[in-house]
User: Fold this.
Amino acid sequence: MRKLKHYNYDVKASIDLSKFPAVSGYNFEGKFDFDRFIKSFSTTGFQATHLGQAISIINTMRREKATIFLSFTSNMVSSGVRDIIKFLVKHRHVHVLVTTAGSIEEDVMKSMDPFHIGSFEIPGRYLYDHGVARIGNLLVPNDRYAYFEHFMDGVLKKFYDGQKKGSMGSTSDLIRLMGKEINNEDSILYWCQKNNIPVFCPGLTDGATGDQIYFAKQRWKDFCLDISKDIKQLVDIALNAEKTGVILLGGGISKHFTLNAQIFRDGADYAVYVNTGQEFDGSDSGARIDEAITWAKVKPNAPNVKVYADATLVFPIIVAATFAKSKKK
Assistant:
């Protein structure tokens, strides 16, 4: 066998690399240790290192008692991440939720019956003919929407009765009423109303919820939602917080609505993004944290990281290494 020659080069390094951690992964020899396993992400490299940084920043948010804003897109509730978000609000680990209309309605639907695991490859025509809709590789029977329509009939009637008595509600007020009417401990909205955690949905008229609001407007011409109350409440929470931390899963309107409120306090104190978006198209969804700093959405010196990954893969790990550890203890 040939031996590799060892060459001595008389070259001075331009930087002292001894100050940087050595690259190393988890050593599976011996008994498995969860804490060491999690710590190894930081020195693994690539997005594993970003994941390790996200865990560290969130633990700092908690230690510094920051007001935590959790933003997420509806596919998180379509998936099993719904159960993780439910855990967070049930135990008051986060203080504000910002999401999209799909999250609101699918949380209600899943309180009746589950969605099912299918495949990305099932032909759309086949599913359509059998009354099943597809969200990625998840299957949603159409009867879930029939239940949602029945549920919303009662909720919107109660909401409108309150309006007639002189109390015009906001979208977050409507969502709170929905959580109260669900009365199901598997529901995110149930625990949010029970623990007084506000849920903001700036695009509530999008999707099936918007359909039901349309029908309500047909029945009662003066039916109205006061969206100005939502922005006032959200900004006031940001302004009155000593420190704020944002955890953003995905992009879209929920991400921007959360970050825009931080402008009023010159930016969030901590920021963790988890999404697969790229910035080359100029979208807010793909924008990095460095861009948010230019808008005063995140403070220039704020500990921050963006994890380029599917949140269904990494968010359960993040929660296991942060919020869930306190419950374990």
User: Anything to note?
Assistant: The first helix runs from residue 34 to 41. The radius of gyration is 23 Å. The first strand starts at residue 67 and ends at 72. The mean pLDDT is 94.
